[in-house]
Amino acid sequence: MDNLNLIDTFSEFKELKNIDRATMMSVLEDVFRSVLQKQFGTDENFDVIINPDKGDFEIWRNREVVEDADLTDPNLQISLSEAKKIDTDYEVGEEVSDEVKLIHFGRRAILNLRQNLAARILELEKDNIYTIYKSKVGDIVTGEVYQIWKREILVLDDEGNELLLPKAEQIPSDFFRKGDTIRAVVVRVEMKNNNPQIILSRTSPVFLERLFELEVPEIFDGLITIKKIVRVPGERAKVAVESYDERVDPVGACVGMKGSRIHGIVRELRNENIDVINYTNNLQLFIQRALNPAKISSIKINEEGKRAEVYLKPEEVSLAIGKGGLNIRLASQLTGYEIDVYRDQVEEDDEDVNLEEFSDEIEDWILDELKAIGCDTARNVLSLSREELIKRTDLEEETIDEVLRIFRTEFE
Description:
Elements: H1 2-14, H2 21-40, E1 46-51, E2 56-66, E3 77-79, H3 80-86, E4 95-99, H4 107-134, E5 140-148, E6 152-156, E7 162-166, E8 181-192, E9 195-201, H5 205-215, H6 217-220, E10 224-232, E11 236-243, H7 250-255, H8 260-268, E12 273-278, H9 283-290, E13 296-302, E14 307-312, H10 314-321, H11 326-335, E15 338-343, H12 364-372, H13 378-382, H14 386-392, H15 397-411
Parallel strand pairs: 2-3, 11-12, 14-15
Antiparallel strand pairs: 1-2, 2-4, 5-6, 5-8, 6-7, 8-9, 10-11, 13-14
């Protein structure tokens, strides 16, 4: 029975995928030789013959024929009388080879051999998974949601390997059930407690880049290059693209006819808004494109300080900044310049007043809320309608009405 169990383990080992023949033979021989060393004190006089095609093996022991009286080590030597029982032609000094059957090892030795073999199989499987997925870092993989925990999701690939999608690597609006198919990019592979840990991500810019490669053949073929990607997962992303062929419009190719190409990416990313921007070495033009959809009047650039002063019409300021400052923050990350937004100077009969001047009448957190939408003076606020202020801020209607009353009183 123990012999059959060992053969079963051997067959299981033989069926392992992606294990080269030389490695398999070497590991199996090492396991057998370790048992021989424990059993006989040495393995040097043994030949281990493995037949991976049939899933079986043979062990042969080589011993020197000595006179009966000179026998000192039964493992390395065989007495002449014993040798002649095998073959009457044997003489002293010759070498006798006889097969050692597994059953002669004893039940405990067979059990140890089986355990060692199983452990080496498991170790090889782990190393194999690690090697395979190490080469897949940066690639998209598809798997099935197997288990959902508070901090991570366990995903199984087609081979049944376990992959982890941590909460921090999930898009905030992601929602999965057990059995759902999931796509993500492999961001890192590490050995933890001697087990390969494969970490996936749906928030990495690399995931968005790979989705573009899948959806846009021109990117996959190298006609269009993605220069840089910045994103706030699930909210907004900006992608700078460049074409090496003047006949190819990089933005048009990425968006597709009536948005056919980009719609699939947007759906995968839970309706994340994606701005595709034509890359240029002209910094002013690049900043202008990065702040889309706002229309810019002029730009002053400080290359040493990596800062850009952008001037816009009052009605364009909120578009440039975006909800919660998202648009301007992503534009800064994309261009590598800290962008400061200013309103164009307009001629006014009356002087304007900075919001800080009203701190004795209006609480600071309300003033901060107004500044967040690009308003830093009283006239900036008054230039927006009541409905616009309610829509763009998190302030109550009563608060907006009181603020407008205070500002209007100031200029009466």
